[in-house]
Structure formats: structure tokens, C-alpha cells
Amino acid sequence: MTRVLSTLLGLAVLASTNLWGVLAIFDDEINSVDWQLSNIGKYECIVPVSIENSNDQLLVLSTLGDKSLLSWIDSTNGQLLDRLPLDFLATDATTSNRNELVLQKEGEVNVVIDPLNGLGNQDSDAAFDYQTYSSCRPDLSLVQSANGKLKVLDNDKQHVVYLQDLPENYSGVTYFKRCEDGSFDIITSTSAGEYQFSKVDNFEVTQSWARDESLTNIKAFAFLSAKDPLSSKIFAKISQEEFMSIPEAYTYRLSQNVQRLKNFIVERNFSVGNIVKDILLGEDDEATLLQKDINFGFLKYLIVATEEGRIVNLDARTGRKLWSFETQLKDISRIEATNSETEILIVAESGDLWHLDISAIEKAPFVLKKSHLPANRHAEPFENGEYIYLGLEDGSKTVFKIHKPRPNEEFYLLDHNETHLSASLYKDYAVENTWKIELDEGEKIIAFAKRDQSPVVSVGNILGNRTVLYKYLYPHLAAYVTGETSTETMTIRIIDTVTGELVHSVVHKDLVDLSSPINLVLGEHWCIYTYFSRAPVPEQKIAVIELYESLTPNERLSNTSSEIDALSNVLKPQVIQKAYIYPEIIKNLALTKTKFGITIRSVALELESGQITYLPKFILNARRAEEALMTADDKREFLNSPYVSAIPISDFTILTHHKHVLSGPSSELVSVATNLESTSIVCSLGHDIFCTRVSPSSQFDKLKPSFQKGQLISTVIGLLLVCFFIRPMVDTKKLKTKWFVKG
Amino acid sequence: MTESIPQWATNLCDPDYAKKIQVKSSNSLASPPGFKAVGTSAKMTKNKESKPVQKQDLSALVVQKAWQIAMQPAKTIPMNMIVSYMSGTSLQIISIMTAVMFVSNPIKSIVNIRRTFKSVSMNPEVKSQVLMAMVMYVVFQVALMAIGVHKLNSMGLIPNTKSDWLFLEQPTAYKEKSFAF
After folding, report:
1. How far apart are CA B157 and CA B146, in angstroms?
2. Residues A185, A63: one domain?
3. What range does the record give for the signal peptide (chain A) (predicted)?
4. Cβ–Cβ under 8 Å, residues A601 and A528
5. For chain B, which residues make up each domain, given as ranges?
6. What residues of B are in the A interface, CB distance below 8 Å?
7. Beta-carbon-side half-sphere exposure of residue B96 (alpha carbons within 13 Å)
8. pLDDT for B146-174, tens place per residue?
9. Mean pLDDT of A268-287
10. Which of the two residues, A285 and A28, has the higher pLDDT score?
11. Of A3, A450, A460, the CB nearest to B166
């Protein structure tokens, strides 16, 4: 039965997607489903790429994490041309007479770089030309700012050659270059991170552009869905039917549908031509496309908080900025949507808590309430933003209620920092400590993951011989990785968050490189972690641990009949694990989320090279075995393949195409579900912001654009017409046969 | 202008006319010229003499016929086995159709068993033996069906394993709510 279903599904998928190859995302999809905000960051120094010839490029030195970043900007329009992350932090920069960029390195030899191509100039003897000024502190002797005006004087400091209103939050002039003929280029900056370039020639601005760098290194974010007025109307009508008897409800729905049909016809001015055209061609005007995006749930709003305390709303389809809102809070730690996404909470480390009303999400919000919480180490909203957990500076913890609390609410909370895990129970409006794990001296928590709470579709894995391996679906699990630098070992522990009991642990003693990124995700019944180790050969490794109730097929140990108390949970999982080798260093790991969890689970990987790709979970399967060890039944298992230690990067799964995402050290990779089960939005939020859509099992719930709707409809109409003509013919024929009449 | 009704028309309208016609037995007709009725009468007498014997023969014939009908499905068993083996267990529309046919045809035959045995079920004397043949017929049809069922099973189309009913199984529900950060 399942086979029939899976075959049918397979056929449907095959029919709708041609072949596996359509999983790929190709060049023509660039910028149609993805977008990238390529940021430079705070401009430390700006130098013209070339002094002599009239090269219209500027070279900007900024920071990316704790290293420096060189960016080339086209000075005619402000477009970013290229970026080059350096492997050190440059504290100062200057240009030499030989058109070289000299970067000052803290306590070390200066680095000389050719500004035209960014290549290091090793054999340059004039390492530092002291005759030149520092490019990071432009000569501002001719520039004055006072009374909200920016003045530029002529060489004799007698006359004002240029006058400009200062922008809001003006913070200074970052670049000023005066040519022989009196024309000059100037870049002013604001504290929010906006840079305004003007080229003034003959007292007139000939070129100007602005770049907004405020969205570099965002501090907090939240995703909100667009509300669909149409579907909520239909939903309201359907919920109305619940109070009616069946025939009443039926007539009600019928009348509603007739009304909708009427409206449809009236909207098209009773013109048959219009209706046929609309049905055949479909409308592809903006309103319809927007409605489609809302229905499919592609239209999400990404609300971010910048370092300067600005709240910005971005359209997650295109990256378009919808509004920005100043809070002046410099230490925002969390943004959380609450009250069915009509409000957002903004939590700052200093304890400020702002309620913003965003019920009209495309319009700028307003403050509903400002309140003050105790200053905290970290704040975690939970239960749809109805509560906020606060870990205070002194190590104590508290839970703050946003809305009226419901009585008898009980939550088990687990908090962690680098050296310990501490759990608590929130009960009767009070927090009570339950258990604590202190790590040994020298040990440190490197990664932590809670279990993903997506819906469970199937309680077991179906094997090739049609037996079932039951998954260990205990929900209160968390996993953490600890590392010990002295022995270069790493331990992964999976624990019960309610009781603190150790469920499973794995130790890696293969010279784990603890300075390279170590990531961890905990899915339904499995845990995937990545690390770099130097033994036996230096390789990036991805390992997977799968938890099953029992490794004997068809053996279910968990209870289904009654609700169970987690404290009396005695069931322990049985574990299978496998490790794989990956060709690139993995910087970040995220689990793709879909609405119902039917789509094949995947992990999105952000690579050190700046690319984002994904791996379906069936590749990272702990039950894969070498081909020689596989039985015929194993081979028959759906999506099971022999174990091969190295996982190659499939070109088709590179989500960033040729783009490079500079995410910096503290970036986050997140996935949000859309209304289409097949599709999930994946975003990398760090120095850059990059968002795209992924469909790991191909777009099985969406018709391809090449779907021949016209042909299908015309065939149906043709067949109906044929029936209309053939029916009387058949009737006469039948009558004649009855009467033995020929012809 | 009146015309007298002809005789044939009167006869045509008379419903009892056919009964009134005198039928002459063919036996009383004279043989055609050159036809010699050699020993006919003797045989007739002989038949008349051994009437119980003849009746026994007839019963045997009926039973034989009944068994022939009963054995018919048995003969197709090896054939069906070969066909079902050759068509493989891959899930294709043709093999699924044949497998379904292997199951449905015996059921149809069993439902129509009275019609199949109609020609031999008139004789009440050999009723028990015919019944026996009918039972065997059913047994063979069941055997045929078993081939079909086996084939369906080997194709995995019969929901008889735990995996087929997995969608009905629910995960365990836990009372607590926990959050980890």
C-alpha cells in the first residue's frame, strides 16, 4: 500500500519536474529567488584606487569581524565592485607615491598592497612613505561644520566654495579629496552608518550617491508573515459554518461560492473574452503576483535591529527596505513577534523592553509600551513571546510575563553559558532551580542545540523489507559540544532537558581543531555536528547520530495510549552513528524548516568560502552501510544508498551561485517555513544579509511556469464539444440497431 | 366493395390454429427411396432392454464432465505460476493488472459456479459427486487466487506489515513543556 502511494507520488513528482536535475538552481534564478545585501561596514579609511589616472574607483578599508576588509566602490554611482577579506587587522592605511596602499599592522611589518588588484606587493622597498598622510584621517583643514551646515573653503580659507545641510546624526567627514582644479570629492557619514558621497565641480554637485551600511552585523532579527485579508475572510466564513446544521452550511457555502463567481464575472465586465483570457493566460500583474506570494507564504518580513539601535523592516523576497525606526538602544539583544504577530518585543541587554505595534506591517510602527526589566546577560522570549526568560548578571534568573499569565503554566527551562548548564522550573509564577552541570576545568561549551520542534510526520523509518525502525521521539532533548584545548578532544552530549540525564555521549580524540567552527543541530531523532580534525588527515567532518527506540525492527517501546510525564520517562534510545568527510570547512549549520515536515529534511551549510549549500538528510544517514554489507532488502529501502565516506559538493545545490557571502564571525543561518510545504526560506544574517528559497524535495506542490494550462483547458473543452456532437449520433445508431435498420 | 377473407388470414388470426394442425410423426413417414433401415429396430429394442445400464453410463458421463470442468482451473495453475514468476515484482501497471486479475478472476468464477456446472447439475442421482467436483473446482480456484495474492504480496501491495499502518501510529504525548536556550 505504502509502495503504491510512494510510487504514485514518485510518478507525480517525476512528471512535474522532469528529472532529478531540476532540483538545481541555475544562473537564471539569480536575484529572482535570492537577494544579497553586500555590506562594507564602517568605513575606516577611503583612498582613491589610483592617484594619477582618472580611475573612478575608491578603495575602502573596513572591518569584518576581527579582520580587515578591502572593498572597491565605483565612485560614479556608489556600486560595490569587489571585496577582499584580509587575514589581519589593519590599524591604519596610507598611500605611497608609487600608488601603493600601505596597511599598518599592529606590532608587525606593514603590508603593501596594490590598490588596483589587491595583490600583495612583496618586493616593495618603500614600505612606509612618511611623507604621505594617513588616509584614515583625511586632511580637513578646508572643511568646517557648524550650525547644521557643512562648509568647504577655498585654498586661501577665504571663501566658502560649497555649502551643504548636515544630515541627521552627522558624525563626520570620512573622505575629502581636493584636485588641482578646485573640484573635490567628499564623503560624509552619519552615526547610523550612512555614507553620502558628493563630487563638487565649479561650486556644483556633479555626482552624488549614498550607501547605507547600517545593516552590517545586525544584532537581532525576527521573521513575520504577511497577513492575507482574503484567506482570513474565507477562514472566517468557514468557521461560521461550524455553527450551522449540515444542509444549512451546505446552502450557505453554495451561496457564498455563487456570490464569488458573480463577483468574478462582474469584475471582468461580463466580457467572455476577458474571462477566457484570464483563465488561459492568468493574470501576471503586480497585484496578482503579490497575492500569490502572500498565499504561498513567500512574503515574509525580516525585522532586524542594527548596532545603532535602528529597527529596519526588510521584505524577505527582495531585501527592499520598507521602513526604519529609531530606538536609540545600542544593545538590543532580541526581537520577538508576539500577540499573533501584531506586536514585536524589543529586548535590550540594559533591560529596556519596548512593545511596538506592527499590525500594519508595511507602515512604520509606533511604540505601545516601554518598560524596564533588570539588566541581563541574555534574554530569551519563549511561548510565542508571552514570556521572557532573563539570565541576570549575577547568575540568577527570572521569567517575565508579557501578557496576562495563564494559571498553572509550567515550563522547564534550560540555560547555558560557556562553562555550565543550569535548568530551572517555572511554576506558580516563580523560577526554581532544578539541576546544574558544571564543566571540568579547561572544558568549554562550543556549541549548543535544542531539539527542533517541527511536527512529527512518521514515528518510524520504513526499511527495505517493509518493517519499521521506531524513532526515538522524546521531545525534551538538547545537545551540546564541549572541547578541551589541552588534549584537543571534543565531546558531544545529548541530554534530557527536564531531568538533566545524559542520553548519549560521543568523544572525539582525533586532534579536533577547536579554533575552527564547530556546529551542531538536533533534529527529529538525529543530531548532526561538524568539526575539523587533524587526524588521521586534516579533514572537515560531518557526523550524524541517530536515536531509535530499538534497533530491532517492528519493536515499539514507547507508550501511545496515554499522556506521559517526562520525569518518569525510562525509555532510552539505541544509537547508530556515522561520520562523513566534507571538502570545505563548514562555518554554519541550519536545519531547513517546512510547514508540515513532510519534505525531506535538509541541513543548510554555510561554507568558509562564502557559499551556502544544502545537504538532504538521507545523504547524512547513519544507517548507510558499505555496499558489500548491504542486503537486498537494504537496497530496496527508499533513498538508501551505500556508505561512501566523502560527500561531494553538488553544484546544483549551491544556493549562492557565484556570489560570495561575507558573513563574518558571528553570523546566523536561519530557515523559516513558507505556506508551500516544499519550500523553505534560508537566510544568512551576519556582515552581509543573504536570503534565498530552498525546496529540498523539488517543488512538488507548485506548477512549473511551463505548465500548459491553455492546452489542458482547450483539450477538455474540445472533448466536451466532441461529446456534445457524438452523443445524438450514438443515440440514433443505438435506435437503428434495435430496429435492425442499416445505415 | 367487400371481399371475403381468405382462409390463410383467418388461420393467422386464430391463436389456436397451431394446436389444431395435425402433426404426423416422422417415424410414421415412409423412408426415402434407397434408405435401408438395417438393424434399427433391433438396436431400439436392445436400448430398451438395457435402460438402467444406459442411465448408469449417462451418470458416469455427467460425473466425468463435471470433473472435467472442475479440473479446468487446475490445468491453468502451472501456466499462471510461470506467468506470475516471469512478470516479476516490479511495480508496473501491466504487472499490477495481471496480479489483480489473478485474484479477481477466481472470485468471479466462484461466484458463477452454478452457471459453470449447470450442464451437469440436472441429474439428481450423481448430485453428491458433482458437488464433490464443485468443491474441487473451488479449491483449484482458491489455489489460483493464492498465486495472485502471493504475487501481490511479493509486490508489496497487500498492507500486511507494520509499515503499511505506520501512519495510524501516534507519537507519545508528553505533558511538560520545555525550552532550552
Report:
1. 14
2. yes
3. 1-24
4. no
5. 72-160
6. 91, 155-159, 161-164, 166-167, 169-181
7. 11
8. 998 998 888 888 888 888 888 888 888 88
9. 74
10. A285
11. A460
